[in-house]
Structures are given as C-alpha cells and as structure tokens.
Design goal:
The complex is a heterotrimer of chains A (337), B (261) and C (379). Chain A is an alpha/beta fold and 337 residues long. Chain A contains eight helices and 18 strands. Chain A has two domains: 4-194, HUPs (Rossmann fold), CATH 3.40.50; 213-336, TPP-binding domain (Rossmann fold, 3-Layer(aba) Sandwich), CATH 3.40.50.1220. In chain A, the strands form four sheets. Chain A has a seven-stranded parallel beta sheet with strand order 7-11-6-1-4-5-12, with helices on both faces. Chain B is built from six helices and 15 strands. Chain C is an alpha+beta fold and 379 residues long. Chain C has helices spanning 9-25, 30-36, 41-50, 68-81, 83-94, 97-102, 105-116, 230-266, 278-306, 312-337, 348-355, 365-378, and strands at 121-124, 140-144, 147-158, 165-171, 181-187, 193-197, 208-219, 223-224, 268-269, 272-273. In chain C, helix 5 (83-94) runs antiparallel to helix 8 and helix 8 packs parallel to helix 10. The longest helix of chain C is centred in the middle third of the chain and has 37 residues, at 230-266. Classes of the chains: A alpha/beta (337), B alpha/beta (261), C alpha+beta (379). Chains in contact: A-B, B-C. Chains A and B meet through helix 3, helix 4, strand 7, strand 9 and strand 10 of A and helix 3, helix 4, strand 9, strand 10 and strand 11 of B.
Chain lengths: 337, 261, 379
C-alpha cells in the first residue's frame, strides 16, 4: 500500500444478474456521487462478467463518470476466486479510495475476501454513509446486536476503504439516456486451476402463487396470534385485496403453518416494503431485524404492550379476527370506487 | 476428516434492553449463548462426521467465560476444544481476529473443512469466515443450508433470496452456514457430564507466531468511531379501546389521508 | 428463580436439559395429545436419546444411577409440562425396579438392556377384582416343566397399550395368600394381549388398558426372586417409587399456581387486578404453602430412600399429602380463573382433571392411612 493520498475515486461494484445490473449497484452509483461531491472525485463503475459493456453503459446512464470492465468466460458466473482475483488486480492498478459493494449474498461473499487480500478495512451491511471532505475518510454506519445498536466505523489508515451496503437504502437516479463516459476494458485472466468452486445449478424457489416478498411494496404478515395454519386465510384475503405479499413470523413457520419462504426476520428474509402490516406478531427483536426498515409499519395485536407497537407508525389494539375482515372489506370497497 | 468449527459466545439479543438514560445497551444480566448460526454450523459438521468419520475441533476467541460455550459444543458433537484468549487480542476487528484464528488453525490443524456460522448476532459482520479462508488460502462457500461430500470435495446448497445454488468446492474449504432445515441435536446427559469435566486448552499470544502490531487495536484497519441506539419510532398512532369495525375504519381513513395505501 | 433453591449444579443442568427438550417438543402438542389420549412416542424417543431413560438404572447396568432426590426433582419438572406424559415415561422405565431389588445379575442386565434400547415397560398388579385388596389376586402362574403358564387379566394398567416388557404379579400358591405370589418378567412377544384403552378423566397422555394373559408361557428364568416373595418385593419397591410419582402432582400444582398468579395479575374487576383482593391472594398464598410443603415432604422421602432409611411414614405421608394438595390447589386454581377456568380454552381445567388420579393410584389414600394407623399402633 502506498500513500493514502495515492488513492482516488469512488468505485462501485456493479453486480450482475444474468447480464443486467442489479438495482443495488445503481443505487450505490447515486450514493457514490453524493460522497464524491465532497471530495471532488469521480465515481467509477466496475463490472465483471458477461455483457459487461452493456451494464457499464447503464451504470453511466445512472450517473457513473466512467467504468472499468472485465469480460471473459471465467467471469460469466460469480465465483469467489475469479472475482477476488480480478478486483485485486484492478485495485492494485487503479488504487481507488473507496469501494462500494451491494450487501447481497455474493457481495458479502466477495467483500471480506477482497478486503483480506488487500489487507484493508471492510464495513458490512451499512445503512448510512458520510464523507469527510478533508480527509477522504468515509464514515460507515451499520446495525449491530441484531439491530439494537448502530455503530459508525472508519478506516483511517488503509486504502481502499471497502464497504457492503444494504439494497434499498439509497435510491438510484433516473437514467439519463445517451449519457456517455469512458469505458476501459481490462484483460485479466483467472486460470481455471485457481477457481476452486463451481456452480452446478441454480434452483428457483417454488412460487406458491403469490407476490415475492423481496419485490413487494406492501406486505401483510401473520404471527402466532393467528393460532392455526387455516387462519392464514385472514392474511391472504387482506393481501389479495391490497396486492400485497404474505409474510410470516418465525413462530408460524416453526409450527408448520406456512412455508419458510414467507419468513421475515433474522433467520428469514429482510424486507423493506413501503407498508408492512404485522398481524398477531409480538414484534420480538428477531422479527424486527427483518422488517424495521419498512417505510410505514402498521401493527394489529390484542396485547397493548406488544413490542411491535413501539416501532409502529399506526396500530390497533384488538382482536385481529374481527379487525382483519373489516379492513379487507373497507379496502375492497375503496378499490371498487 | 479433520473438521474445525469456529464459534462465538454472544449475548442473547432477544434479551437485550436499552438504558433509557444513557442510551446504551444494558448487557448486565443478559444470558450468553452460543451464536445460533454457529449451532447450525456445528450440527452440519456433526452430520458430516457421522457420515464420513473424523474428529471435530471447536475454537473460539473470547474471554474466560467463553469456555462455557465451548463446553456446550463439546456436549453437542465436538471432540476437542480450544479457548483463544489473551489481553493482547482485545480490540481486534475482523481482519485481526481472522489473522489470529488462521494462526490457531495452523497450530491445531491441518483441517480438511472449516465451518463458521454465517454471522454473529452481535457483530453481524459475516466477515471472519471469508477472511479466515483467505488467510488459509482455502476455497469458500458462504451462506449454505446443506452440505454433502462430493467426489474430491464438497457440495453445498448456497441460499439466495429467490432460490439456491448447488456449489461444488475442492477441499480444503471454509463454509459459512445459515439456518439449516434440521435443528441442532440435543446434548445427552452423558455428553453434558463429559463436557463439564473436559479439558479445554488455552491458546495465548505466546503460543502463536504473530507480530504484536498485527493484532488488537494496532492490527485493526477499522475503528468504531461511535455507537448509538437507533431511535425507536415510537409516537405511532395506536387506536385502542374501540370496537373492531370502528377501529378498522379509522385506520383505513388515516392511511388514506396520508396516501399510504 | 427456581421454586426449589437447593439444587446442586448437576441437578440444575439436568433440569435445564429436560426443560429445553420439553419446551420445544412437548409443550406445543400438549392440548392435542391430551384430547386424543395418545402418548407422543417421538418425544419419548428424544428423551431416551438424551439419556433420561437411563436415569434410574444403576451405572453397573449401563444407566446413570441418579439419586432418588434428583429423580424427584426431574419428575416435578416433567409434571409442570404434562403429568400424564411424565407418569408414562416413568413407568416405561420403572418396570425394572423389582428386578433391581430381587433379580439375578443376568435379569437386571437383561431388563436394563431392553429399556436402554428404547423398550417400554409396565407393571401389572391390579385386577378388576383386586385393587387395594391385593390378596384377592386371581392371575395364576402354574409351573410346567421348565416354564410357567400365566393366566389372568390385569386392569387399569398404565402403559398397557404401548409396553413391550411386563413385570407381572401372579399367584403361584393359592393357599398362601400374599405369601403365595411371585413376580415374572413377561415379554410381549410371548403372546401378551392388550384390551381396549381406557377413556380417562385425566393424565390422558398416559395410555391405560387391561392386559390379558391367556396361556402365556415364560421360562423359569423369568421368575424374579423366589416363589412366594413377589408381594413382599413389590411392597418394598412401591414404597420407594410412590413419593417420586407424587412429584408429578407437585408439578401439576406448581403449574396451576403459576397460571393462576399470572391470570390474577392481569384480570381486572372493579377497576383493579384481582390479585389485589385478599380473597384471591390468600388463595394463592395457601397454594404456595401447600406446594412447598408437599415438595419438601417428597424430597425428604427421596433422601430417606437414598440413605437406606425406613420409608413407611415418609412414603405414606408424602403420597397422601401431595395428592390431596394437588386436588385442592387445582380446584382453587379453577376458582381463581372463574368462568374461564371451567372452559377447555383455558389450561387449568386439565390440571384439575389430571390431579384426581394421584389420590387413587399408587395405593389409595385410604390405604395409606391404614398403613400409617398400623405403623403408629405398633410403635
């Protein structure tokens, strides 16, 4: 590692999903632009994989100043070894000051491997970023203790500063059609003996005929208060009227009332819908860890002391078996009007 | 097979409370548990050992009382345990921690496969597994819910939000484990009693070949600048003591007013 | 905080292990299995795997050899979840007790192996015409060469429907009354038949039925002790196990108190929680007193058993007191819950149903008083 001042610019790792940039990469381009404005630096999109040139263009249209791409057969799918090798060689050549990576499964696979190879600091799963214009030190803020505590981390003595950031925290910019920027093609090969993992197949989750949790704007979620598997019908009815996805607490999944794919929480999915309606869910820490970032939280529970009410924007203390049918009917009526 | 499981003793985050005056976490009286993802990792390792034979070593870097967590693991399938403990290690971030653990692996190994929980529920970083793999120059598969032996290596079920990948890796490898479909085995009375009497060796700074400034605060590129308790939203509009249909209609009206649905 | 403050570290660890398993595996299915009147075998198997079936078997035969005191503490914990389950689990291992007292080394190891390998035992004494009056026993065991042929019907036998190993009291010499009775180990595969399952008021998870011996042949080696000693051996065994079975009743009562207290703190009438009314809090206080007394009387009997002391008074006193205590406490618990207590939607009516049996089986409380009267008269 050279002098800290040798390191410049904010790099954004653009993760691909079958050749298309995942939203999180574009969100981080927007975030990068804000940060770069403090230090008068550039935002560079890094794309590794197939159809990298197209993806780089999209990143530039969403605000990246330039892009660096690596596109050969060994990068067609993600692998720890190939991607870490490529990124390391790029970093050694270009010396970025900051690298932003989406905190997806593969983002959190790559980040620490890369950070260790570069012997630098990594901050994972961030929900806020702030740049100190004078020092070029980024302040990374992230949750700890299952969301009970926030910590602000800095990486002052090494470069690059690397972080993984939660999808959905930042909003991507509107694309500027035809916006141009320099796209540099780098040729980096990773020999196959060095790639120690292989993807045999990808199996998609069986869709049980509903809106997927991760895409949903509205989620209606059921908890132990429902009392039985059959009573999920109350949740499904409301969800159907609202065009919402169906979520569930761990207790209901453990009891076998609904498949694990619906579980929201620390050992289930983390969701960030516009509206999250928690019915018969007490709101224990583990569940909150999965949904507390929703824009609006609505809670329905017969226990006025349920912890879920402390994070709810709206709520009703009462019997969900009486309340949900009325809600369903009211929303249904509004829809018709 | 020579198997290693890395564990961490963590506070039970469901029991954590906030001190309203100082706005800090109250850790006093919070029970300590083995990190839940590590218990799944140990169970996965135990099943691998049942299938392929071998020995399971469990290690943790932590204070003296972390030995209790090691004993729980000895009662639930592990054969040997080491406590990695030294004042010199205090203040280590994930990079420094992984460096220390890598040296411990070199000393107590070599291992064919290393299991870690996908993340600790206190730190929530998920970084030590991959960083350990990098230091040891091993293949890695993260976020797996199932594992089996396959040819010359292993096959893991790597979980994604919308499905899973079947990934093959050559050994030696590090895997990080998320929630499995099966629950960790219950300890038996015999294994609990044996675990209570078991010898747990301590590994200190003096036992490892490490530079003093590559560990602890000096060896940590990241630093915690500050911590704070997130603002509980509070102040929500909670409708109480109203009959169901009135309450429900009020809620719908409120949501409509604020254009939320 | 635990209700019994003097547990050793080992006892705390064992209770912790037991509680963890029962909370996860039994608690969620109690209502369902009580309604069905079925014994959850899968929970039984999990407990066996964890080592709890080895608890009362001496180490010499592959068991854990836990003390009577520790067993009493564990039984109370089980009783807090479901006394029926606890009774059946205990009886499933308990058929070995008379064999441990009077059997040959070979018999002890044989029976221990059967249990440690997941077998379920049951004890067959009572008959349709012979409950308290054991002398009226009619099941016979007739010697025929190197075998005995057993004929008769046993009634109200706990674990009858699920057992594979039966410890049976039968008449070998009709002329000698109770001195003409003998104990036999009878394996199910020898042709033991089971009658229909009883539809009981309480402890419904513990399956009970008639057990029928129709020309069942057992080798002479299955005789435990000598001919004619059976009654004496059983009396010696039952006086030890009786207090431990009563621990389940203490568990029932403790659960009833915990539920009533929680309810009384929440339920408001006339503007405040009912626990603020001395009418209610005094009821709860009396429950607490009675439970503490029963628990400790049982532990006293257990410790006397561990020390090899005479158990006549301790056992009969603990049995009578604990069973009557459990009935009173559960009845009062239903009272605290008021109308809700009478409904099956709330958990206390089950506790009252479960409590009743404890004054009847393991020797009725009337017989316990006969024993104590006789004991005092001879002093």
């Amino acid at each position: 590692m050279g002098q800290l001042s040798d390191y410049k610019n904010i790099w954004v790792f653009i993760e691909l999903d079958n050749g298309t940039p995942k939203s999180v990469g574009l969100e981080l381009v927007a975030a990068g632009k804000e940060l770069a404005s403090e230090t008068k630096e550039q935002v560079v999109a890094v794309v590794i994989g197939s159809r990298a040139e197209e993806a780089a263009q999209i990143a530039i249209e969403h605000g990246a100043d330039s892009a660096v791409i690596v596109d050969s057969a060994e990068y067609a799918s993600y692998s720890t070894d190939a991607y870490t090798n490529a990124m390391t060689q790029l970093v050694d050549k270009y010396q970025p000051s900051v690298i932003l990576i989406g905190a997806t499964t593969n983002g959190r696979d790559l980040g620490p491997r890369l950070a260790c190879r570069l012997q630098t600091g990594l901050t994972a799963d961030c929900i806020a970023l702030a740049m100190d214009g004078e020092t070029g030190n980024l302040e990374w803020t992230r949750p700890a203790f299952s969301g009970n505590l926030m910590a602000t981390i800095v990486c002052e003595r090494t470069r690059p500063q690397i972080g993984t950031i939660r999808p959905g925290v930042f909003k991507k910019n509107l694309p500027e059609q035809g916006r141009t920027g320099r796209v540099v093609v780098e040729t980096i090969s990773t020999p196959s003996e060095k790639i120690r993992t292989k993807i045999i197949e990808f199996v998609k989750n069986a869709e049980d005929g509903g809106i997927q949790l991760k895409d949903a704007d509205i989620i209606v979620s059921g908890g132990r208060g429902l009392g039985s598997a059959e009573n999920f019908s109350y949740i499904r009815n409301l969800a159907a009227v609202l065009g919402a996805a169906v979520g569930a607490s761990r207790a209901t999944v453990d009891a076998g009332w609904i498949p694990y794919s619906h579980q929201v929480g620390q050992t289930g999915k983390t969701v960030r819908p516009k509206v999250y309606i928690a019915c018969g869910i007490s709101g224990a820490i583990q569940h909150r860890a999965g949904m507390s970032d929703a824009d609006t939280i609505i809670a329905i529970n017969k226990d006025p002391d349920a912890p879920v009410f402390s994070i709810a924007d709206y709520g009703i203390v009462g019997d969900l078996f009486e309340i949900l049918p009325v809600l369903t009917e009211e929303f249904s009526r509004l829809k018709r009007e | 097979m020579n198997i290693l499981v890395c564990i961490k003793q963590v506070p039970d985050t469901t029991e954590i409370k906030i001190n309203p005056e100082t706005n800090t976490l109250i850790r006093q009286g919070v029970p300590s548990i083995v990190n839940p993802f590590d218990t799944y990792a140990l169970e996965m390792a135990a099943r691998l050992k049942d299938a392929a034979g071998g020995e399971i070593t469990v290690i943790t870097m932590g204070p003296e009382q972390a030995a209790n967590a090691l004993r729980e693991c000895l009662a639930a399938g592990a054969d040997k345990a080491y406590l990695v403990n030294d004042a010199a290690f205090a203040g280590s971030d994930t990079l420094a921690t992984s460096k220390i653990l890598a040296k411990v692996c070199e000393k107590t190994g070599p291992f064919d496969i290393i299991f870690c929980g996908k993340q600790a529920i206190d730190g929530d970083t998920g970084q030590v597994g991959p960083e350990l793999a990098e230091y040891l120059d091993m293949a890695q598969i993260t976020n797996i819910s199932e594992l089996e032996l396959s040819g010359a290596g292993i096959k893991g079920k790597k979980e994604f939000g919308d499905g899973y990948e079947v990934v093959e890796a050559r050994l030696p490898a590090v895997v990080t484990v998320t929630k499995t479909l099966y629950e960790p085995r219950y300890p038996t009375i015999k294994s609990k009693m044996a675990a209570r009497r078991a010898q747990i060796d301590k590994i200190t700074f003096a036992d490892l070949e490490l530079e003093a400034d590559s560990i602890g605060l000096k060896g940590s590129p990241t630093r915690v600048k500050k911590t704070f308790v997130p603002q509980a939203k509070g102040n929500g509009v909670i409708i109480q003591n109203e009959p169901a249909d009135t309450a429900a209609r009020k809620l719908v009206a409120l949501l409509g007013e604020n254009k939320l649905v | 905080m635990e209700n019994y403050l003097l547990m050793t570290e080992e006892q705390k660890e064992l209770v912790g292990m037991l509680r963890a398993i029962l909370e996860k595996e039994l608690a969620p299915i109690i209502e369902e299995y009580d309604e069905l009147g079925e014994y959850p075998m899968h929970v039984h198997e999990i407990l066996c795997e964890a080592g709890f079936s080895a608890a009362m078997i001496p180490e010499a035969y592959g068991g854990l050899g836990l003390s009577q005191e520790t067993l009493a503490i564990l039984n109370e914990e089980m009783g807090k979840f479901d006394a029926g389950f606890g009774c059946s689990f205990s009886f499933a291992c308990g058929g070995i007790k008379t064999v441990l007292l009077a059997g040959t080394e070979e018999q002890k190891q044989y029976y221990a192996d059967r249990i440690l390998n997941g077998g379920i035992s049951c004890t067959c004494i009572t008959e349709p015409e012979a409950g308290s009056d054991v002398a009226a026993l009619r099941t016979t065991a007739v010697k025929d060469g190197e075998e005995y042929i057993i004929n008769g019907t046993k009634a109200f036998i706990s674990n009858g429907p699920i057992a594979d190993t039966f410890t049976v009291l039968a008449v070998t010499d009709k002329e000698k009354g109770t001195r003409g009775m003998s104990i036999f180990i009878v394996e199910k595969e020898r042709g033991v038949k089971v009658g229909k399952k009883e539809n009981k008021m309480g402890i419904r998870m513990s399956p009970t039925s008639e057990v029928i011996f129709d020309n069942v042949r057992v080798p002479a080696g299955n005789l435990v002790g000598n001919e004619g000693e059976g009654f004496k051996i059983f009396m010696k065994s039952l006086v030890r196990s009786r207090p431990l079975i009563m621990s389940f009743a203490v568990g029932i009562a403790q659960k009833a108190l915990d539920l009533s207290t929680a309810y009384a703190k929440e339920r408001k009438t006339f503007g405040s929680p009912i626990i603020k009314n001395q009418g209610v809090s005094f009821l709860l206080a009396d429950m607490e007193i009675q439970i503490q007394a029963a628990r400790n009387l049982i532990l006293y009997a257990a410790r006397c058993a561990d020390a090899g002391m005479d158990l006549t008074s301790a056992s009969a006193s603990a049995k009578t007191f604990a069973s009557e205590m459990a009935m009173k406490v559960t009845t009062d618990a239903v009272q605290v819950f008021g109308g809700y207590g009478y409904s099956k939607e709330y958990p206390v009516e089950k506790l009252m149903r479960d409590a009743k049996i404890f004054s009847i089986f393991e020797g009725t409380n009337q017989i316990q008083r006969v024993i104590l009267g006789g004991y005092l008269a001879k002093k």
